[in-house]
Please model this.
Amino acid sequence: MVDAVARLTRLGLPVTPAAADPALLELRGIVARAVDPADPASRTAALDGTLRGLLARFPDARYATAARALFGLPPAEPGQNLTARRELAAKQAGHEVHHFRKRVEPKLVEKLAWELLADADRFTRLPMIAPRLAPTTSRQPVQADPFAWEVAEHEEHLCRLWSAIYAARAELLTVERLVSLDADRVDVVHAAVTAAWRWAAARAEAIGYTTAFGTDLEAVPNADLVALAGWAPTLTQAQASRLTEAAAGGASREQFVHALHDETGLGNTWIDGFLTPPAAAEPTDSIEQENGPTT
Model:
């Protein structure tokens, strides 16, 4: 796996079918994201998108920019060869090029490989993949039959569930982006409240779906369904239930806020969760610690 990721540095991103190792294309996280899992080109596109996302969230902040440059993402420029990208990455990391190539680059590649494996493991442990959609050119009426009605209703609720999960993810990402930009607190708080509304609505949809249908999701806890949207501040069961009650029934954002008008403590818990810096990584997880301050 590490060797397969290392080979991607030769040409950098975007990943091409010729550069994509079969071992990477067969990862469950890649297959699940592919529009057509049977098509190698589709899986290659999914691999490219997944790598970009992992590099955008590279876990070692000290070397995140260097890792992105090494694989051809900004601050690297399109078309730069490996030598130019390596020199830029070394500069971003604060190391001499030879030291970077021998000591740091292998660690960056290894960490990205582990992130790919962790991503695949998340898909393996949770049997939840959003239903794929295909374009249709003609109307598909529902037949006047109890079984057809039941199937259509199930798909309706499933679509609402995934719609709510993706809407929550979009708002959670918005908050994290604003925090990263050091945006005005008022803007961050506004976005955090919107995220709370969408997160609670997703939780309400998850509870409603699993209660009504169960089926293949009956063994998946509602908390895991909502966790698909992304990280959210830690709440007690009572706090999560209170948010869910306020968002249930298709409540608007204004109705959600009004219902929680007196819940100051709950609001502070949610908002402070985003405004509190994440815990620093352990020293053993840091590439800088492993390689020392050599320049």
